[in-house]
Amino acid sequence: MIKLENVSFSYGSNQVIKNVNLLETEPIIIGLWGRNGAGKTTLMKLLSGLENIDAGTISVNGMTPYNNNEAMNTITYMQENHPFSDLWNVEDALRFGALFNKNWDSELAEHLVTLFELPRKKKIKQFSKGMQTMIQIVIGLASKSPITIMDEPTNGLDAYMRKQFKEALLSTLEEDPRLIILSTHHIEEIEALCEKIAIINEHTIVRYQDTEELKMRGVHLSGSREAIEPLIVSERVLEKRTLGKLISVMIDDVFSNDWKLKAKEAGINVEKVPLQDYLISFTTQKEVNNV
To answer: What residue ranges define each of the domains in the chain, with the CATH number in brackets?
Structure first.
């Protein structure tokens, strides 16, 4: 469905995408995680044909997306602050959505507008942040494009509306399988939806992995320095804090029964690191010494 090989892109002398490789052939939900400035937005623009690559190749359903109407007809990209006209209300957005998406599902669009309780006649520019996100979700899901890309799709949503979004997304995917990319820098808000997660850091994809496998990574150890340091000699340490004779470390390994046993024998504490914390440390690595 999508294939990127050694893709690079620059704005002038500023390289923002560097040697990106990604292949996905199945209609699944992918989480695209990265910190601000990592290159998420530019990568989504390249996939949707809004920008042209400088090097490498991009294939979307077997086609190059840039300047390709046929390819663009298979892609819907809803930006975080989507550039709706200042004059548009919900009815206008639905009308244009139907015009520009050949797989448009009017019944689904109407259902989602009702579900999200969106005022049909109010100007979209006057919407709250959460309401703007909701109309973007409506367009994204009702488009039923084979490739659907949504940037920060839970931004501004309260807990109830996040639940409604997740249920609607899974329901439409079950009826019409397609590849959906959800971009975020808060992975906990979408991780339950995603079969795989792509991590973008320093302008390239550094890991693309099944979500369940990725969630098992990240081991936190705390206790005496004397007990912990022999255990981490050959491990990749992502974060390290010291306070006198005490030490706290995060290592890049799978949280396993073996680590539980090692911790018990050494008389130290061991915990599974939350996925968001692991991703932050994986893409930063830091050491803090407090004497």
So the answer is: 2-214 (3.40.50.300), 217-290 (3.30.70)
